[in-house]
Automatic annotation (TrEMBL):
It is found in: Cytoplasm. Keywords: Cytoplasm, Initiation factor, Protein biosynthesis, RNA-binding. It holds the Pfam family eIF-3_zeta. It comes from Collybiopsis confluens. This is Eukaryotic translation initiation factor 3 subunit D. One of its GO terms (biological process) is cap-dependent translational initiation.
Length: 580
């Protein structure tokens, strides 16, 4: 008994199935059409006689839509379950053509709409669709059609819940982008989140300033024993990097490559969490790069509920084309700008009030006096210590790439070691509550009723609504080498009065533990800093600005003229002298 293989005809075209150009004469299926398909098609089923397109009509090619077989709204297919050979012309499809020439409309009287809406089977435009249905606010046609409702007009049917209530006003940039500026780089936040760099412990170069002891009685404050927040006149400097005389001395000795402050560096390290716009001025002089801030910029204030789903909003400016529309006489105390100024005021005064300025315990003087306090100053100096530290950002062993950071601490803890050696240092911050029922509160609970009994819920809400601000505070404390963070909970005495506040409680937390709770990655932060620094080192000497887009998670690097930002005040003074 012998067995012989049948002849196999290869496809010279390189495709699947028999070739139409190379069919043998004895091939008995040569007159039967073949439905081609792509190798990327998912083999869900061999045949589907009820295959429908996106508009719920059978996929018949060459047949008008009005002549297609009727299908209901239930003939939908889930994505990813294509039939074998779907999307191609079906040579085996059966088309039933209706004879509509004899059709005539008998009754054209509209049926009364039932209350609450009712579905109706229609002909013409709604054939094969979802039909017409009437609602109390108007009429909708099919899926994705025109929708006229009481709340307004929408395209594409129903979108989100109460979209008309959401404030979709776009934010403005923190700095006006001039047309003469040239954009050099654009980096999305999702790319920044993937960067990693491990950095060793820093080296302390020098310390300046004077520290007072933290008042431990503030740790025993509760909502039942609240304490009024006092307004104290103290001087605390927030000088930018280039104006720091100590950094200028260190730069002349080539102590590092990058020079900045902890406030500016924390903004960059936590940039993927930011929502509001910000900008960093970058100056390259030789082999040195300085990260600066603008006077009156976003670094001088504290944001409120920046990461909330519905953050506080500033009122819209009046329409210049409408002369009858006027700006509000007084801004709301719950607007974004007013809350930011209030939070800055609360932070400063809480730090001033929560220290003991008289002996005992003794005042601790660092190795050098405050570098910014001149002999002409008459107001007392606030408790503040500056520690200049150097971090090594080198990637290779033969590389010398360091960053010098001016860090700040606010007080020291008595009995926790020698503050001059970096022991027992404390940073003091404050969270403020304005009105839990006001727009922009972010669903925060009432602190007076929940802070003592459900502190975890209050902390979780603040971590959600102020993720960026709290992450910056944790990074600043770790950069300064502080052992503890003191976070005060300050609320208004009356929700309608933004001038008087009370202290409800104070929490103590280690900065490293707090950063872990916030999921702050220091390796990612250093990776962002090194990436931006490498971009600046590739550029020639000059002035640049790193700008956070006000409405998108993107940062952009611009090259700007050397006189930008610094020449504005000089021009104003020159005009005043000419007028005199």
């Amino acid at each position: 008994m012998s067995f012989s293989l049948p002849p196999i005809n290869d496809n010279p075209d390189g495709g699947w199935g028999p070739s139409s150009s190379n069919l043998p004469d004895q091939f008995k299926f040569k007159d039967i059409p073949y439905a081609p398909y792509s190798k990327s098609d998912k083999l869900g089923r061999f045949a589907d006689w009820n295959e429908t397109t996106t508009d719920t009509r059978q996929a018949a090619v060459g047949v008008p839509a009005a002549q297609n077989a009727r299908t209901g709204a239930g003939g939908r297919r889930r994505e990813g379950t294509q039939a074998f050979g779907s999307g191609t012309a079906s040579a085996f499809a059966y088309f039933h053509v209706e004879d509509e020439s004899s059709f005539s409309l008998v009754d054209n009287k509209a049926a009364p709409a039932r209350r609450g809406g009712g579905f109706s089977r229609g002909r013409g435009n709604t054939r094969g669709g979802a039909g017409n249905y009437t609602t109390r606010g108007g009429t909708q046609r099919g899926r994705g059609g025109f929708n006229s409702t009481r709340g307004g007009v929408q395209r594409g049917g129903r979108r989100g819940w109460r979209d008309w209530e959401k404030n979709t006003r776009t934010r403005e940039s923190s700095v006006v982008i001039s047309p003469s500026w040239s954009m050099l780089e654009e980096i999305e936040f999702h790319r920044l989140a993937k960067l990693r760099l491990d950095v060793d412990e820093p080296e302390d170069l020098d310390s300046y300033g004077r520290l007072f002891a933290y008042d431990k009685t503030f740790d025993r404050i509760t909502t039942k024993t609240e304490k009024p927040l006092q307004q104290l006149d103290r001087i605390k400097y927030n000088t930018t990097t280039s104006d720091d005389p100590v950094i200028q001395q260190l730069a002349s000795k080539n102590a590092a490559t990058i020079y900045t402050t902890d406030v500016i560096l924390s903004v960059l390290m936590c940039a993927p969490r930011s929502v509001y716009p910000w900008d960093i001025v970058i100056v390259r002089e030789g082999n040195n790069v300085f990260f600066d801030k603008r006077d009156g910029g976003p670094f001088d204030t504290v944001t409120v509920n920046e990461n909330a789903s519905d953050p506080p909003q500033d009122p819209s400016p009046p329409n210049p084309n409408n002369p009858n529309e006027k700006a509000p006489e007084a801004p709301s105390i719950n607007s974004a700008t007013s809350l930011s100024l209030e939070a800055t005021y609360v932070n400063q005064n809480f730090a001033f009030q929560s220290v003991i300025e008289t002996n005992p315990p003794p005042v601790v003087d660092f190795a050098n006096p405050n570098p910014f306090y001149g002999p002409d100053e008459t107001e007392p100096l606030a408790s503040c210590g500056y520690r200049y530290r150097v971090f090594d950002l080198s990637i290779q062993e033969d590389e010398d790439f360091k960053i010098c950071v001016r860090t700040e601490v606010d007080a020291y803890l008595p009995g926790a070691g020698n503050p001059r050696e970096g022991q027992g240092l404390v940073t003091i911050r404050a969270l403020n509550e304005f009105d839990p029922r006001a727009p922009g509160a972010g669903g925060a609970p009432d602190w007076r009723t929940k802070l003592d009994s459900q502190r975890g819920a209050v902390v979780a809400t603040e971590m959600k609504n102020n993720s960026y601000k709290l992450a910056k505070w944790a990074v600043q404390s770790i950069l300064a080498g502080a052992d503890l963070m003191k976070i005060g909970y300050v609320s208004r005495s009356n929700p309608r009065d933004a001038a008087r506040h009370v202290i409800l409680s104070t929490a103590s937390v280690r900065p490293t533990d707090f950063a872990a709770q916030l999921n702050v990655s220091f390796t990612n932060g250093w990776g962002i800093v090194r990436t931006v620094a490498d971009l600046c080192m590739k550029m020639p000497e000059g002035k640049y600005v790193l700008v956070k887009d006000p409405n998108r998670p993107v940062i952009r690097l611009y090259a700007i003229p050397a006189s930008t930002f610094s020449g504005e005040d000089e021009d104003v003074e020159g005009f005043e002298e000419e007028d005199l």
